[in-house]
Specification:
This protein has 14 helices and 8 strands. By secondary structure, it is α/β, with parallel strands linked by helices. The chain has 2 domains: 169 residues, 3-Layer(aba) Sandwich (Rossmann fold), CATH 3.40.50; 189 residues, Up-down Bundle (Dehydroquinate synthase-like, alpha domain). The chain has a 6-stranded parallel beta sheet with strand order 1-8-5-4-2-3, with helices on both faces. It has a two-stranded antiparallel ribbon with strand order 6-7. The longest helix is centred in the middle third of the chain and has 23 residues. It is globular and about 60 Å long.
Length: 372
């Protein structure tokens, strides 16, 4: 009998207002760092509230707010060094996937005294326990709060790369739907389609099992029913709650089952064409599903029975409703000219190895032509 392994955060709280639990959670006492982006967390007042809750515990709270979209290795290095400088005992990631990934990398690297770049180049290992890490997502899509991976953009090499380790899984997740209310329509659609891609790819992944498939199906249903509602009416609290719950379920699914060619090819496309990750996934998903269809007809029929619709047709319809283009060239005019560079930086390990069709350079080139 084969062994199935599961990896989940230690504690997950979900529900409106659960950000306030920061004051009462069993987080180590001492200096702490909140790692976040420069604007949205401040504008929504989530950052101020988080600082206030932690200060009520008597903590000295510092803020690193230099996280950019598609966060870079260089920024993660700065955040890690900042944690060392103030001798932090815990790290809170507050924001979208970039903020959470940056915080995750900083928490993992700070105790060892080496930069993130050194770990990625295998000059050092994550051989010391990370700082206590809590994840507070403010978008409904990336799933970073559920995983052991910190996805970073290595600017100098024009690639996206993952710093990963079982110990990097958050110790605490506070998934508060209220923090997603202020997302604008484009971020709502991109992050939501990122979550759908996580759910769909993990469902068809060669690493899927009964538990991960159940989580995937739950997420797919919730997203199909609520993403357009949330996109068109950001004040729809039921849709917002459903989308965050879907994101968390999809995160649990792909963290334990793996993904596929959307992510395997999407990371280099996004890094080179400089397109937001969720938008790349939304564009690529129907193309990859069509490409994989013959290899997973049984699974597609089973999913159709669960959801009551054809997944490819549904994705295309949702993309159209949210004004997402059908090709990468729709958001990056010179994308086709960069095909060679994209292919040269595509890896066939990681996400790609779980794709239903076993991918190689020739197959990936054919798929890329369809997408661009």
């Amino acid at each position: 009998m084969s062994v199935v392994n599961f990896l989940f955060p230690s504690v997950v709280r979900f529900g409106e207002g659960c950000l306030s639990l920061l004051e009462k959670e069993n987080i180590p006492k001492g200096p702490g760092v909140i790692i976040t982006g420069g604007k949205s967390a401040k504008k929504s007042k989530a950052l101020g509230r988080a600082v206030s809750y932690l200060e009520k515990r008597g903590d000295k709270v510092y803020v690193f707010d230099g996280v950019e979209p598609e966060v870079s290795v260089e920024t993660a290095d700065k955040a890690s060094e900042y944690c060392r400088k103030i001798k932090a005992v815990y790290v809170i990631g507050l924001g979208g996937g970039s903020a959470l990934d940056c915080a995750k990398a900083a928490a993992g690297c700070a105790p060892g005294g080496c930069g993130v770049t050194q770990y990625l180049e295998d000059k050092a290992k994550l051989n010391k326990p990370p700082l206590y890490f809590a994840a507070v997502p403010t978008t409904a899509g990336t799933g970073s709060e559920c995983t052991k991976n910190a996805v970073l953009t290595w600017t100098a090499r024009k690639v996206k790369i993952s710093l990963r380790g079982d110990s990097l899984v958050p110790r605490l997740v506070l998934a508060d739907p209220e923090l997603t209310y202020s997302m604008p329509p484009d971020i709502t659609s991109w992050t939501g389609m990122d979550a759908l891609t996580h759910a769909v790819e993990s469902y068809f992944s060669s690493g899927a099992n009964e538990t991960t498939k159940a989580l995937s199906v739950c997420a797919i249903k919730l997203i199909q029913e609520n993403i357009v509602k949330a996109y068109k009416n950001g004040g729809d609290k039921t849709a917002r709650r459903s989308m965050l719950l879907a994101s968390v379920n999809a995160g649990f699914a792909f963290a334990n089952a793996g993904l596929g060619a959307v992510h395997g090819l999407g990371h280099p496309v996004g890094a080179i064409c400089k397109i937001p990750h969720g938008l790349v996934n939304a564009i690529m998903l129907p193309h990859v599903l069509k490409y994989n269809k013959k290899a997973c007809l049984k699974e597609m029929k089973a999913l159709e029975k669960e959801t009551g619709n054809d997944i490819i047709d549904t994705v295309l319809k949702m993309n159209k409703q949210m004004k997402i283009p059908g090709k990468i060239s729709g958001v990056c005019g010179n994308a086709k000219a960069m095909a060679g560079l994209i292919l040269s930086t595509t890896a066939y390990s990681g996400s790609m190895q779980y794709n239903p069709v076993k991918m190689d350079a020739g197959k990936t080139e054919k798929l890329l032509k369809r997408v661009l």
